[in-house]
Amino acid sequence: MRNLAKALIVSAIAAVAMSACTQETQNKLGRAINNWTGTNGVLEIYAGDKVARRFIRIDKLTTAEGTSSSDARPYRYGYGYLDSNLNGIVDKTESYVYFEVSDYSTPYVFFEEPKGGAVAAQ
Predict the structure, then answer these.
(1) Chunked in runs of 10, what are the mean pLDDT values of the chain (122 residues)?
(2) How far apart are CA 69 and CA 72, in angstroms?
C-alpha cells in the first residue's frame, strides 16, 4: 500500500511539473521519453510517387549533431530492417541496417507502423 501511495504522489508531482512547463519543453520531454521507450517506426523513401526503399521496425529517427558543436547536421539516421521486397514484413533474408537520409534531397515519410501489422506495399 505504501508503494502505491508513493507512486501516486510522484505521479501527481510529475503532472503538476509538466503543466508548468512550456509547450516546447513538454515536446522535448515527450521526445526524450519516446526515444527511450522506442516506437515501431517505418521510413519510406520515394522516387517520384513510388516507394523506392522502406525501412521497418525503426526505434527512432535521429537528427545528427556536430562533433565539436551541437549544431544540427542536414541528415537524419537510424537503425531498422531494410524491407527489400516492400511487403512490410521482416523476412529471413532481410537485415538490420544503419541508414542515413538527407534533409535536403531525400523525399521521405517517417511514421509509426499502424496497429495490426504490415504496411501495404505500393
Answers:
(1) 64 61 59 56 93 92 79 87 94 94 88 70 52
(2) 9
